[in-house]
User: What shape does this take?
Amino acid sequence: MSKTEVQLDRRKSPFYPRQAELDRLNQWHEWKGYRSADGFWEMDLEYFAQRNSAGVFDLTPMTKYRITGPDALDYLNRLVTRDMTKIKPGRVAYAVWCDDEGQVIDDGTIFHLNEGEYRLCSQERHMSWLQAAAIGMDVRIIDETEDICGLAVQGPTSFSILKNMGLHGVETLKPFDLMALNFHGAELMISRTGFTGDLGYELWISPDSALHLWDTLFEAGKLHHIRAIGTHALELARIEAGFIAAYIDFLPANVTVRSGRSRSPLELGLGWLVDFEKPNFNGRRALIEEKKRGSTWRLVKLDIEGNKEAHHSYIYDNKKGGENIGFITSAAWSPVCKQNIALGTVRTPHGKVGDKLYVEIYYQLEMHWSRVMAQATVVSKPFWDPPRKRVTPPASN
Assistant: This one.
């Protein structure tokens, strides 16, 4: 057994026994010590489950920190750029946190569970940073990653499936709402959140009840074409939604070695998450200065001509003899949008909405490499943004 296989066998999600029964590909990777599936059947089938019915993704490896104590709110308000006083109990907030230079360390979601009680979820591990930021405050931070497992149920039939499970009250949840229910003696937390840009929910429960939740969910969804999905299908959906991902669209500031390789929230299109009215938060002074002088980089969403995906491509300001102004970070052909789409980062002042840029794409057909300079238009909205993701109560399907 290889070293990678040994590492992957160290920790399995509580949902793994059911996933193993479905697995036809045997393609797994390590996500913070857990086995996480690239896919189970075939990526296109899993992708379309999210867009046409319901896809279920295992969120268990996501890092989860319980934050409590008299200073919990003040602590989070200093940690993140967003004004957390506006996030009431029963709500979820998307947020970013920065170092003192205003560079993004990570993004994540903050669940306001009860008055003064929060859960911070993120892709990466951050206990050392969270503890350092807590110096001088009366706050308690507990890593509960292994104590809570989760499933993302995403797609147009997700609401109908949860309704079939008898989860009363789900119909009242607005986007970024959360609620807790009794599920056969266990607390089940449901949040109307997700990483697909579509109607969807996330279910959170203790590992002891994981298999019962899985079985009940899939029984309720069998007539709605529910399907387990892997990372590859989810990745395509998140690009269509215009969502950024750490280590793909930006590098966490606390791991970069070279200057200029990290990004600020203003450079990542997340200026709406920065509340300069707050008296103090990590990176505030640096971000104020950046706002005055202007940012160096700008995140762009690109609609690219043709159908050749622009993975790892350079971006130019014009077609012939143009200046290299940036590069693609995420790219895909969108099956539902019928568009060649990408996220990229370009030097300002380039990249304004409506700008016409060019992308240098290399592609291979039967071992023969070709090069094309494809025109790209900077767009403002997500590529996939269906109205159903906002409707409350959602339509039954």
Observations:
- Residues 204 and 304 are 38 Å apart (CA to CA).
- The chain has two domains: 1-293, 296-379.
- Residues 210-221 form the longest helix (12 residues).
- Confidence is low (pLDDT under 50) at residues 1-8.
